[in-house]
Each structure stands twice: as structure tokens, then as C-alpha cells.
Amino acid sequence: MTGRVAGKVALITGAARGQGRSHALALAREGADIIAVDICAQPEWMNYPLATPGDLAETVDMVKGLDGRISPHIVDVRDKTALADAVDAGVAELGRLDIVIANAGVCPLGENEPESVWLETVSTNLTGVMNAIDVALPHLGAGASIIATGSFAGLTPQGVKNGPGGTGYSYAKRGVASLVNSLAIQLGPRNIRVNAVHPGNCNTPMLHSAPMYKVFRPDLDDPKREDVLDAFASTQIMPVPYVEPEDISNAVLFLSSDESRYVTGLQLKVDAGALLKAGVTGL
To answer: Do the beta carbons of residue 269 and residue 198 sit within 8 Å?
Structure first.
């Protein structure tokens, strides 16, 4: 099947690398044009490297290599005014907006981080999602799709407890799940659907960071990738340490396409059974 989102334009936050880049490429392969947003900077409170302007430029080149159009913007999703300007410019350039993928997020783990990191994390992972939806909404019409990136951590009672960044991450992702349910009710009469995708461990730079490795292997002073693979796998039922960004993108592509035209308020888990292993079974 090809052309599943042909003629559509998608706003993707956190598009410079990781899941965001994967989403951009997946949608571009199926005919969509992309408004790509990323901070491409290193706030002083972050304790692992974020994306760079070079990463965003690489995403641009990859989308263009698929014959897709892309409008890139270096913007912090916490800055609603700048984000609105970027989206307005992207819509002016590409002609419309049909899909919102509110994906940008951070996870600065560490027990010794300052308390302010909690607020910075929530501002990015929850307020940033709301900002992206808010500034996009005036451009969306019937049939539009809004997709927010949640997390396994937002659906477990215990969440992530490693310092203010960890607890802020879990709080924000719980908020994303709640936001999706409430907003789906509000926007359903306009035929705009709202869903969330909740990844487990995902093979991205966020997972492969020194603070994350230390959480999974606190017994080692300086754990490396090879040291944490078994620990990663121990959190899931399926025998893998993580899912790939493309696995999340497959879910995002479905929710972006008209194949999901009557799917709204969905909390779609792509976690290799991590929630089941944690005892969260639902119905």
C-alpha cells in the first residue's frame, strides 16, 4: 500500500532525530509533506545531549530524498509564540495542515538534579504538547488527526522515580494520556480525532544516554550500551531490549491515515508487553 497520507501535511515536533525523524520519513514515504520543529539546542538543565541543527538538516535531506517537501523550524515547544509563528509559516509554505504529531520530549534522569528540572520536563513534555495542538488547531479541518507521544511510564502506577526529571516525565506522560481522552471528546463533533501512542523502551538517543544507563545499571560506575541490554529486556515480556523508532512510526502512520478515520481517544501501546509485565492489564 502506498500513498496512505498523500496530499496531507504533518506538523512533527522533535523531528530532528529519534522517533520524530522516523515519523517524518514514514509519512514522507507515504506522500505527506512535513513541518519539522525541534529545539536544536542544549538547555543548561539538560544532562544528556539533545538534537543539533545538523541533525535537523539531515532530517530535511532525508525527506527531500524521498521527494517530500519539508519546512524546518528551530523552535522550543515551550515557546508558544515562536511555535505559532513556525506553524503559520509552514502552513503558508506547504498550503495546509492535516496531522499533528506532538512528539518532542525529554527525560533528564538523576537523583542529584535540581528540583527545577521537574518543571522544565513537564513544560516540555506536557505543556509543549498542548502548545503544539493549540497553535495547530486553527489550521485543522474535518478529518484531521492529532497524535501525542505518551510513554509506558505514564500508564504505570509507579512511573519513573529517578529524581525530579524522572517524576516530571511520568507526571507529564500521565497528563498526555488524560489530555487525549478529554480532547477527543471536545474535537469529535468537528470530526477531528485525537490519539496517543505509548512507547516502551525505544532505540533512540533518549534511551541510549548516560543517565538512563545508570538507572538500569546502578551497580556500575559508568555503564555502557552493552551493559544495559539485559536490563532493558528484563522490563518487557517479549525478549527484546527495546522497540525500534520505526515500530512507533508504523502506529503513527496508521493514526495519521484515513484508515483510522473513526479511531479517537485511543491509548495505543507499542511496548513489547512492558505494561503487561508491570501488571497493568486494563480490559
So the answer is: yes
d(Cα 227, Cα 217) in Å, to the nearest integer? 7
CA–CA separation, 269 vs 202, rounded Å? Answer: 12
Query: Which tens digits make up the pLDDT trace of 155-203?
Result: 987 767 789 999 999 999 999 999 999 999 999 999 999 999 999 999 9
Query: Domains plus CATH for the chain?
Result: 9-201+243-278 (3.40.50.720)
Answer yes or no: 242 catalytic: no
pLDDT for the residue numbered 1: 59
Rounded Cα–Cα distance for residues 257 and 194 (Å): 13
Q: Which of 169, 171, 213, 242 is flagged as catalytic? A: 169
Instruction: State how far the Cα of 133 lies from the Cα of 27, in Å rounded to an integer.
Output: 19
Q: How many other C-beta atoms are found inside a 10 Å radius of the C-beta of residue 161?
A: 12
| Cα 197–Cα 202–Cα 206 angle in degrees, nearest 5 | 105
In terms of pTM, does the model score above 0.85? Answer: yes
| 110-121 per-position pLDDT tens digit | 998 999 999 999
Instruction: Please state, in angstroms and rounded to a whole number, the distance separating the CA atoms of residues 177 and 118.
Output: 18
Q: In this predicted structure, what is the pLDDT of residue 283?
A: 52
**CA 165 centroid distance within chain:** 17
pLDDT on residue 141: 98
